[in-house]
Amino acid sequence: KLTSLALQPAITPELVQGRVHLKCSYSPPPPEPPVQFRVLWSRLSSPGKREQIHQETTSQPFSYVEMDGANLRLGDTVFCTVTAFRRGTPEQQSLPEDSKGFYAGIKFLPESLEIAEDGKEHVLTVLSTVPIACPGQDDSCKITLQLSTEDLGKSSQVPGPPDIALSACQVDLLPGPCSASSCAAATVTVTAVTDFARDGNRVSRLSARPAAPGDALWRAYTPRDVKVTVRDLPTGNCYSFTDPHIITFDGWRYESHKIGTFLLCRSESRPFEVHIRQWDCGGHRSATACNCGVAAR
């Protein structure tokens, strides 16, 4: 009789003898009569399509499959499907029950960012959903991810310099116990570049690449990119012109007739300042100064 037994299969990652395995666990039904389980492992080969990678019949309430880099690779979304039947009567099966899809590989949280050119730092977490295994390298066991950014621009524009800046060019994922959906994690901060250009909202891509991994499992793996949208903010303007009329960022107007070199403006939060030089430009009735030089950092 086809019935649903609420087996609730779930996939968790584990290190078995130093190698990465996935474990499918399920709740066995009441012990009488003795029950066998058929466990079918599959991976998402394309949207909506699954490809079978392993099948076994067992009396245990769990099943293992190894991530060998061939049948099962990093970047795969994996499922296990469990069917129960009585020993000796395999034709009387329960309804097959699916686990949730388990993504094996690197995840970025959040998966995409929308930030503004306001100087704020945004924390991006890089995590591995599978354990970090380094056979024979236990003293310096880690996976180093090389981070890079690329400006995708707007559809009507040629890509320019990256619109985002990272706090680090690489992060290390160190081995540790798996908990929740993470086996190793690191953080990096992302800031929008304040470019003083009215260049509209631009999209940048943040990529991570494993750097010279010792483990063959990581060698051919490229994690998914993160899309970062930078919202353009209108930039302030200040002026000093002719016999210097000065208009400040907030629209205040005044004049300066002194001779010499002066600090026009300076940022208190980053290395940015502008100096101006004013000289005597020959007023008949009173001393008049004019702009004659500018230096900006």
UniProtKB/TrEMBL annotation:
It comes from the Eukaryota. Residues 236-297 form the VWFD domain. It holds the Pfam family Ig_VWDE. One of its GO terms (cellular component) is extracellular region. InterPro entries: Dev_Signal_Modulators, Ig_VWDE, VWF_type-D. PROSITE patterns: VWFD. The keyword Zinc does not apply. This is VWDE protein. It comes from Motacilla alba (White wagtail).
